[in-house]
Structures are given as structure tokens and as C-alpha cells.
Amino acid sequence: MEDHRANANPDHPDLRDYVHWHTAYDDPESSLSIRLRHVQRAISTWLAGTAGPVRILSVCAGQGHDILGVLSQCDAVDRSRVSGALVEIEAANNDVARHRIEELDVNLQVVRADAGLTSTYAGLVPADLVLLSGIMGNVSAEDIERLVHTSRQLCAPGATVIWTRGAQGPDLGPDIRRWFLEAGFEEVSCEEWIEGTGMRVGVNRLVAAPEPLVAGETVFTFYR
Ligand SMILES: C[S@@+](CC[C@H](N)C(=O)[O-])C[C@H]1O[C@@H](n2cnc3c(N)ncnc32)[C@H](O)[C@@H]1O
Q1: I need a labelling partner for 3 at 20 to 30 A (CA). Which of 107, 122, 205, 218 fits?
Q2: Does residue 40's CB lie within 6 angstroms of at least one atom of ligand 1?
């Protein structure tokens, strides 16, 4: 994948330019576009298996291409039963998502905040679907394990978590799958090496009881 560090956000010099990062979605053949379609399929499958109002939380939502792409293909009835929040730290990404949300006329709020802090989620949880797309390749193994366990605090009973992690070394896929089981989630599916890209998309469902949100804790910090 292209390295965007040369365009790093001056506010966060160690991080990639996560506005430009989204231009990979302009190419339908890019590995990120392929991953996006699989995440969208997982969201559509989840939505089709639900009835009535559902709440969605997208953590590090970027421009919201996954959930908003799905909602753009839904009928008005399904769109009207979805609510929730997209948490994202980059203002320009917030703006893109807000614009699309207005166009779609869906009940989603865009929250500009640090998604790595549990305090951010006060008032935004519990959610029936938690999206963790594009996080686990950019934070440490310890942070991923903590995120998996903490996601139980973000979930309503029986909630689904959709997550991604590439196969870059070290390949943490087996660990992540085990951490979800240890955290009280069953595995619904885990697509490995999707279409030969090295991308991985996992779907897990909470079978243990949710945990109350514990504010004031740091869960993860992006390192690139
Ligand atoms: C790899 S992108 C994934 C975006 C989106 N989830 C997707 O899959 O298309 C990671 C996103 O996380 C955002 N991000 C990084 N650190 C964050 C933080 N601490 N809190 C909220 N968002 C953050 C970046 O700005 C970027 O938009």
C-alpha cells in the first residue's frame, strides 16, 4: 500500500495523512476498496438479520464509506431504523461524512473525538453494531487486545463487532480471533486473505453480558 507519511498531518506528524488515505477508495481495484466491499457485505448481512431500531457505532470512522455506502443502497424503511455515531478525529473526514449523512437523511451523528479514550463513548453506547475497521493495523498488539476486551463496554446485548486487520507481520489474526473468544464473543465469520489482498475481515457476536462503560481509560493510540 502507498505510504502517506510524506503527507503527514502537521497536527500529528507521526501519523499518516488520513484524509488522503481515503483516495484509495477512488480505485475500485485497490486492496482497500476490496476490503471495503467485504466490510459492507458484512454490515448488510447483519442489518438484514435485525428488525426494528438498531444503533451503530463506528470507531475511527474515517469518512464513513462502509456504513454510509450500505445505507445508500437500503430502502427508506431500513434507513429510518438506523441511528448511532461515527467517531473520527480528522475534521476533514468528519465533514465528508456529515455531508453524506445529510444527503442520505439518516440519523447518524459525527463526533470529532479521540476514539482511543473510553470517555468519548459516554452517551454513544451501547450499540448493536460496532465497526472496528482500519484500526488494528495501526495500533500495537497490546492496544488491539485491550480494544477487543473494551469493545464489550460498547456493545448492547448480542451486539455484533466487525473488525479488520491485514496480514502484515506480525500476523496477529490468530491472536485477535482468540482475544474475541476470551472477551465473550463468538466468531460469526473470519475471511482471511480476501481476494488475495492480505486483508482480513472478522465478524464476532457478543454472547457474554455487556460490561458497563468505564470512563477515563486509554484503549489505543495510533502509531502510524
Ligand atoms: C485506516 S483509517 C480507517 C477509516 C475507516 N474506518 C475505514 O475503514 O474506511 C483510520 C481512521 O482513524 C482515524 N483516527 C486515527 N486515530 C484516531 C483517534 N485516536 N480517534 C479517532 N479517529 C482516529 C484516522 O483519522 C482515520 O480516518
Answers
A1: 218
A2: no
Quickly tell me which residue has 464509506 as its cell. Answer: 65
pLDDT tens-digit series, residues 18-51? 999 999 999 999 999 999 999 999 999 999 999 9
Domain boundaries, the chain: 30-206
The CA-CA-CA angle for residues 56, 137, 155, to 5°, reads 25
Is residue 38 lining ligand 1, measured as CB closer than 6 Å?
no
Whole-number Å distance, alpha carbon 89 to ligand 1 midpoint, is 7
Q: What is the DSSP string of 69-81?
A: HHHHTS-HHHHHT
Rounded to whole angstroms, how far apart are CA atoms 190 and 213? 27
Which residue, judged by its Cα, is nearest atom 19 of ligand 1?
114
Q: Which atom of ligand 1 is nearest to the CA of 131?
A: 6
Q: Is 114 in the pocket of ligand 1 (CB under 6 A)?
A: yes
Mean pLDDT of the 174-199 span: 95
Looking at domain 30-206, its CATH architecture is 3-Layer(aba) Sandwich (3.40)
198 Cα to the center of ligand 1, angstroms: 20
C-alpha to C-alpha distance for 44 and 71, rounded to whole angstroms: 9
Count each helix (H run) and each strand (E run) in the chain, helices first.
6, 7
Beta carbon of 93 within 6 Å of any ligand 1 atom: yes
